[in-house]
Specification:
Order of helices and strands: EEHEEHEHEHHEEHEEHEHH
Helix content: 25-40%
Shape: globular
Distance between the termini: 7 Å
Radius of gyration: 19 Å
Oligomer: single chain
Largest sheet: 7 strands, mixed
Strand content: 15-25%
Structural class: alpha+beta
Amino acid sequence: MQLVESVPNFSEGRKQEVIDKIVSALSSVQGAHVLDLSSDSDHNRSVVTLVGKPAPILEALFRGTEKASELIDLNKHKGTHPRIGSMDVIPFIPFRNVTMKDCIGLSRELGQRIASELHIPAYLYAYSATVPQRIRLPDVRKGEFEELKEEIKKKERFPDFGEPCLHPTAGAVAVGARKFLLAYNINLKTDDLKVAEKVAKAVRESSGGLIGVQAKGMELKEQGIIQVTMNLLDFESTPLYRVYELVKLEAQRYGVEVLESEIIGLPPARALIQSLAYFIKLKGPTSNITLEERLLEKLYD
């Protein structure tokens, strides 16, 4: 059986009735299973985890994007997380008996459909990117919705699908194929945003830090804390424990301790086992050692 995962991110984390309607649209297709929902009011963003066969997942994502475009007006949207669209980003991830090439094809099909039927321009990113400048999602979202209104008219910012003009309320969408990604946040015991920004700079790959790590410092005003928010693009190369330990070490330079950390969405079991094995000095191999992993193999292989 072919199974693909998708983790669509949409730009609403405060209005529960809006969140519920979008999630309902995403779960309205038989064969597309919503496994998790994570919403954050400071980020003003929600992240949904979907798993299913390719065709149902594709249809579910289109319906979710359509509903988000009806309910979210980015002209009125405020949040700490960067965004260019009401349905901001849609990744396709190979899960079981699906290749990265398959996921690239799905991303192109969905991007084209969103542009043609919903009149929302679509950008291809990650493994689906058509130019090197669009491999990294932060580069695609540069300037966010507000600046992209004008930037999209420049040839180098033309969308991959659709006209070089943002949807007036729904903006644009980034669609791509990628590996499993860990959305990982670490909260610090300080109210000094500069500390989080310095720690993020030390950790992220683009400024000489860890391979495959994107990071920035954020202030979560409603919670009254400072956060280092990160995407781990390749947890096989840079495991979770290594990121945590480096953030803790860098924060200590400024006399700051780690308050807590969180994972947004559902991580693969092996990502957690890596860190468990490190901290408890687990003997032997660490791949495919959980009951759930073995059961999944029996059910779907």
